[in-house]
Amino acid sequence: MSEKQSISIGNLWKVLLTLTLLVYALMDAKAILIPIVFSAFLTVILNPIVSFLEKRKFPTWLAIIMTIILLLLLISLLVYFISTQSKSLLNDMPDLMGKYNQFLNKLEEQVGLLFGVYGKDQIALLKENSTSLISSGTGFLTNFINATSSLLSFFTIVPIYIVFMLLSRNSMRQFLIALGKKNNRNFLKIGREIKEMILSYIGGLFIVVAIISALNTIGLLSLGIKHAVFLGVLSGALTIIPYIGILIGGAVPVFVALLTKDSLFYPIAVVALIALVQFLEGNFITPKVIGSKVNISALAAIIALLIGASIWGIIGMILAIPMIGIVKIIFSHVDSLKPYAILLAEKVEEEDSKP
Asked: Using H for helix, E for strand and C for coil, what is the string for the chain?
């Protein structure tokens, strides 16, 4: 084995060992890191509001307090909406189970008329499994509601982190400038690029969620689907989980339409509605609102989602895309890591190579 090959293998082992230790550290310290990382992203989003108030001659401490109060008010309204609507859906769950069994009876009759085969044993097994599935879903929703207290404790520590992060903005800026002088690198420029990317992605994502929620709600209301507002907002909110959230958010209203309506027109219409909204979201809404600031390839996004889910669960899936975007920005400013930034990017600006 040549000396260059042994060096390459040695570097590869170092990289793999570093990544393994990093993943283990992220998993082991997630209870500490998740609130900090979540607070950092919210700090970036809230910083323009604080800056706006400061320009209007508000003291820094007052501007931060007003911003935090606004954030807590929005979170309280969201929690109240989710809890009340979830309880309403839970109250209707026994009725939905009964209608689901009626649907299976009709399905058995239709299959018997078409094929002359009455699979009572199979239908009974399907009923039994489906009842268990719906009961599990009920338990999931109940656990979700009970988890509200945990979320409240989570959002108690997050505002504290945000306050201190907003107060230390100037210190962070001076730190990046000093670090850049020491390492002959413009860390302040990297920080600005990261800030712009986060604002474009997360800020734009909230706008996209609001638009999709409104479109889904209007469509479901026009079809007369029960719990239309909750289902519309839920299907819109789940889009914050890329790829997977779209499927879950679309399946729930279709399932409700199938059980609460006597005609197959309604679930088919809901499928068409969700497909149309997602087409508009993927081709028009998201490109216009968010743009290409993150610029992450689909393969890199899916891998990031899987890693985020394995390490930090749902929060990891939500933060996966902006986190991989931060990694790509850092890679693009390090000469030895630029090829990996190109690998992560969806669109790469090709340099003209003239002979």
From this structure: CCHHHHHHHHHHHHHHHHHHHHHHHHHHCHHHHHHHHHHHHHHHHHHHHHHHHHHCCCCHHHHHHHHHHHHHHHHHHHHHHHHHHHHHHHHCHHHHHHHHHHHHHHHHHHHHHHHCCCCHHHHHHHHHHHHHHHHHHHHHHHHHHHCHHHHHHHHHHHHHHHHHHHHCHHHHHHHHHHHHHHHCCCHHHHHHHHHHHHHHHHHHHHHHHHHHHHHHHHHHHHHCCCCHHHHHHHHHHHHHCCCHHHHHHHHHHHHHHHHHCCCCHHHHHHHHHHHHHHHHHHHHHHHHHCCCCCCCCHHHHHHHHHHHHHHHHHHHHHHHHHHHHHHHHHHHCCHHHHHHHHHHCCCCCCCCCCC
**Average confidence (pLDDT) per 10 residues, the chain, 355 residues:** 52 71 83 88 91 91 92 84 72 59 58 53 50 49 48 74 90 86 80 88 85 91 87 86 76 82 84 88 75 74 85 84 89 84 75 43
Crossing angle between the packed helical segments 298-332 and 187-198, to the nearest 10 degrees = 150
Which residues, 6 or more positions from 308, have their beta carbon under 8 angstroms from its beta carbon? 316, 317, 318, 319, 320, 323
Q: How far apart are CA 121 and CA 258, in angstroms?
A: 23
Polymer length of the chain:
355
| Burial group, residue 43, by CB count within 10 angstroms (0-12, 13-18, 19+) | buried
Helix axis angle, 30-55 to 148-167, nearest 10° = 50
C-alpha triplet 252, 210, 320: angle, nearest 5°: 75
Token duo for residue 308: 């985020």
Contact 42, 71 (CB under 8 A): yes
pLDDT tens digits for 254-279? 888 877 777 778 888 999 998 898 88
Give the integer Cα–Cα distance in Å for 205 and 302. Answer: 18
- Rounded to whole angstroms, the Cα distance separating 259 from 101 reads 9
